[in-house]
Design a protein that fits this description.
The chain has helices spanning 7-23, 26-30, 37-57, 68-74, 77-104, 106-129, 134-170, 177-182, 185-200, 202-210, 220-244, 262-285, 296-317, 326-347. The chain has 352 residues and is an all-alpha fold. The chain has one domain (23-347). It is globular, with a radius of gyration of 21 Å. It starts with 6 loop residues before the first helix and ends in a 5-residue tail after the last helix. Mean pLDDT is 90; it is low at 174-183.
């Protein structure tokens, strides 16, 4: 298997996964508003599994380290099951994340879902070994939680403002304005919160899949394959539910999938491949020896950086808060600043 050999290459790999994990959702945004996230996600799952297999039989089979097939031959069956389970739990969380993006945008869905998951992960890690600077760890986590609150306020303020503007433009009775206010903002935040809670459950499963002991754990490339299998198989089940009982909009038919343009399918495949590449890079950096590693705290900060990058994509490129009113713009700016400060504090807390 190919692994970094110096701390500099590990650091570059961390930057790579920051970019990938913070950018893959752009492929969904590029499909446009007419292509439903449920249909996009079929291609996303295929892209994840295909990229995992390609990586395993290329980079995972090169170099002096244990190859992917060697790891597969000696790894414990329990660890394989944990790897697949991690893929299944992640997949449900990520489906909800993309659903939240379809309603509230990247600038809200990412800090709410991923910020919550990362905050829970930091707390669980600290309670497990009691290492790291407590003030920095929990201060940074507190700021991340504050960012979640302000992102939620921004989403609801934007929905309220746009609802009021739309109602005024249509000259509907004032009583209907209230109904339009609540649409979108609150639902997108709720979906993202559920996604974050589920995403937090992925980290323990990944740890158990990689753990040694009486049985050999999965290396990064084998973990990518088993997680990819879990993602692909569970998509066939989960998506049937979301197609028939959608988060937003009317039910759709499975046949709508084949009606999509080539670009829609290509973007879904690309999104899955980018996510897999970023996740694999993340797992590799956390598997290298400590002398060339970046440390768990700084690794966590890079994942926080991916959240910030996704927020910037949503705000600066997709202009998700354009025409959302001054209050919403202020709230999302505060959320961005708090998430930035939280990530910085976590990165300065060695020992995690």
């Amino acid at each position: 298997m190919i692994f970094p050999t110096t701390q500099e290459t590990t650091f570059l790999l961390a930057i790579f996964y920051l970019v990938c994990l913070g950018s893959w959702a752009n492929t969904y945004k590029l499909t446009g508003s007419k292509w439903r996230f449920e249909l996009y996600y079929v291609d996303f799952a295929i892209g994840v599994l295909a990229a995992a297999l390609i990586a395993a039989f290329t980079l995972g089979s090169m170099g002096p380290e244990l190859s992917f097939l060697d790891n597969l031959a000696i790894a414990g069956k329990r660890q394989m099951a944990y790897g697949m389970a991690a893929g299944v739990v992640f997949n449900l969380a990520n489906l909800l994340l993309v659903g939240s993006i379809s309603i509230s945008g990247m600038a809200v869905a990412y800090p709410v879902a991923m910020g919550l998951a990362m905050t829970i992960g930091v707390a669980v890690s600290y309670l497990g070994d009691k290492t790291g600077n407590t003030a920095l760890l929990f201060g940074g986590s507190g700021l991340a939680l504050g960012a979640i609150v302000f992102a939620a306020l921004a989403s609801m303020a934007a929905a309220r403002f746009r609802g009021t503007v739309a109602a005024a433009a249509a000259t509907v009775p004032k009583g209907n304005v209230k109904a339009s206010k609540a649409k979108g903002g609150g639902k997108g935040v709720l979906v993202a919160l559920i996604a974050g809670l589920l995403m937090a459950g992925v980290y323990p499963l990944l740890g158990m899949a990689r753990a040694g002991g009486s049985e050999i754990g999965l290396g990064p490339y084998a973990l990518a394959v088993f997680a990819g299998i879990g993602v692909f198989l569970s998509t066939l089940v989960f998506n049937l539910y979301f197609i028939n009982l959608p988060i937003e909009g009317a039910p759709i038919e499975l046949g709508d999938y084949v009606k999509g343009a080539f670009s829609h399918h290509a973007l879904g495949l690309l999104g899955g491949a980018i996510w897999l590449a970023g996740s694999l890079a993340h797992w590799i950096t956390s598997s290298v020896p400590s002398e060339i590693g970046i440390g768990a705290a700084r690794g966590s900060a890079f994942v926080h950086g991916a959240i910030l990058l996704a927020m910037l994509w949503g705000l600066l490129v997709w202009r998700e808060f354009r025409g959302a009113g001054g209050a919403a713009a202020l709230y999302i700016a505060v959320a961005l600043l708090m998430m930035t400060a939280g990530a910085a504090m976590v990165s300065l807390a060695p020992g995690l």
